[in-house]
Design goal:
about 325 residues, mainly beta, 20-stranded mixed β-sheet, about 5% helix
Length: about 325
Amino acid sequence: MALDAAIGIGKETTYGTAATGTLGYEGKSDSWKTTREFIESVGFRAGMQTARADRRNIINMGGEGELEIDVLDAGAAALLAGSFDTYNGGIPNATTGLTTHVFETGSNSASPSFTAQMLRPTTDGKTVAYKHVGCVVTEWELTSEVENPVTLTATFDFQDVSHSDKPADALPIVYPDESYVYDWTRTAISLTIDGNAVIVDANKLELTGDRGMKVDRRFLRGNALKKTPVRAAMPTYEGTLEGEFTTEAVKLYEAFIGGKVGSLVIDFAGILPGTSMKIEAPAIQFTGDSPEASVDDVTVTELPFRVLDPGDGRSALKVTYVEPTPGFVPAK
């Protein structure tokens, strides 16, 4: 059945060379689509009805896909590594059994490419493994909203895809032994303006990243496969806070019209002991909007903002993700 579908990503040692295994993610949708274009030749010729069958060459243009997940308190490190520019590799603590991963934005991207394997079951009992190589994250979006789990969607560009219905051709998938979803009850927001904390009654937070990657790097080299995407434009990180218009929220409106720069920290508490995720943006600037009154609800405010480079050596965005170390055995 459809729920037997599965997706996993594995870090590549070389762009476009398939990984040997994958880490499993509980994807919410299947949007991995290959792209093909046609080179068509049409010219004067007697008796032409339409384009000739032998005048159309099909070209492999790679493709795109999204990995949309509910963020769990274990197992999200690989996807975060692909979404940010630098990664400390994960530092395990031999005493606590926890590993701390730190992901940051930077002036240069050192994020890896991945192999993304999508397992699609057929209606007659087989499973076809679609193996996408050269997968690079180009955009991402994180959302926390009242009455919902925390979600992360990463958009990938990929170089090529192959498929097989032979079980031996499918890459192994490894899932965390135990993990729990981060949800809205475990999300806390801290805002600072002019060095002072501002309490915001937000019921929705969105944070997005456009990594400014150039993905169409094709050349006259005897094949259609593109080379590794590189940064070609200024990355843009933006967000939105939505909530009730309170006296404290007036300070945020005044920060918007005054062009002030504040800071934002988002803390997520995990269910597994010691697990957590923290997002730090030391410089944000609100870009609008005015509060909105209503005849059938409380006055609400939507506060879009831009994440900026603080200019003091700190990263524009820093994510600290603490998860259990796989296979940890306490010292006797």
